[in-house]
Amino acid sequence: MARECITCAQNIQHEKGAAVSSVTDCGGGVYSFSYQRPLSKGATYITTKKHRDDLRNLTAQEWYDMLPVIKESINKIEKVYKPIGYRLNMPTGKLANQNQPPHFFARLIPKYKKGFGMISVPLSLKQRPPHSEFEVKKKMFREALLPLNQNKNGLVVNLHDKDELMITTKQQVPPICLSISTKRHLPNDINSMDQET
Amino acid sequence: MAKIEANTDCHDFSVDLLIGEKAAKIAREEAEVSSDDILYSDSELVVNLFPLYGGER
User: Fold this and answer.
1) DSSP string, A51-119
2) I need a labelling partner for B3 at 20 to 30 A (CA). Which of A11, A146, A180, B42 fits?
3) Minimum Cα–Cα distance from B40: chain A residue
4) What is the DSSP letter of A170?
């Protein structure tokens, strides 16, 4: 498998302790390593050790293993680079640039200042499908999703369809957005999140 | 995600978390979204799920 898959080959190096790019491994099915060509200092990939096309294929244990890896990676980045925050992006499917199958990966991109790193882009600067096509898609999503299954497991899911209010990157051109938050106030700090959340 | 895939022709998604209140505020400024219009507070840890269609690759 290692001969066929470059990430498996890298994982073997990582397990041997020979990969210079390794950042964090908490002993689970997920670990993190630094970008070879970072778009922001300290940018880190989080990936599965086993083949998983994207987050839809992750096991419950891999979901469980991911948060400690994210937290420890952030702690390490904090010590060296001291960014003001992060964007954690999990691309799913070709349009989202999930371009490294068969291993799931997420990007942890530190943010230092406005306009640098993985930047958000105003609606006016995006290439979008024709307005009428977007309206049809929005209607389709509303009909498919509403009513939302609110308050499940202490979580609240909201559907937003005003694209001019969505905070998205250039690649993200969504007809709608689902925001998932906790019923109780959850401070915007990764350390406030636990596996149960 | 499963509900969207089952009921629409969308199979691509982007999941985004803006971690840190200052980073969330800057991202909102970059997107030219006013704090008056914001869908959720910068001080709240929120997971955003975007179903994707087309756009730049």
Assistant:
1) --SSGGG--HHHHHHHHHHHHHHHHHHHHHH--SEEEEEEEESGGGT--STTS-EEEEEEE-STTSSS-
2) B42
3) A179
4) T
Q: Following CA atoms A59, A195, A54, A74 in sequence, which dihedral angle do they give, to the nearest 10 degrees? A: -140
pLDDT confidence band for A2 (50 / 70 / 90): very low
Give the number of C-alpha atoms closer than 13 A to the C-alpha of residue A62, restricted to the C-beta side: 21
- How much is the pLDDT for B57? 37
CB atoms within 10 A of CB B3: 12
Q: Do A121 and B31 touch (CB under 8 A)?
A: yes
CATH 3.30.428.10 residue ranges for chain A? 6-119
Average pLDDT over residues A140-156: 81
- Taking CA atoms, A53 is separated from A8, A41, A132, A183, in Å, by 13, 27, 33, 31
| pLDDT class of B56 with cuts at 50, 70, 90 | very low
Q: What is the 3-state secondary structure (H, E, C) of chain B?
A: CHHHHHHCCCCCEEEEEEECHHHHHHHHHHCCCCCCCCCCCCCECCEEEEECCCCCC
Arch. (CATH architecture) of A6-119: 2-Layer Sandwich (3.30)
- Going by C-beta distance under 8 Å and a sequence separation of 6 or more, which residues neighbour residue A59? A29
Nearest to B3 among A144, A169, A185 (CB): A144
d(CA B23, CA A112): 8
pTM for the whole thing?
0.90
Least confident of A66-75, A76-85, B21-30, B48-57: B48-57
* pLDDT of amino acid A74: 96
CB-closest option in B31, B43, B51 to A141: B51
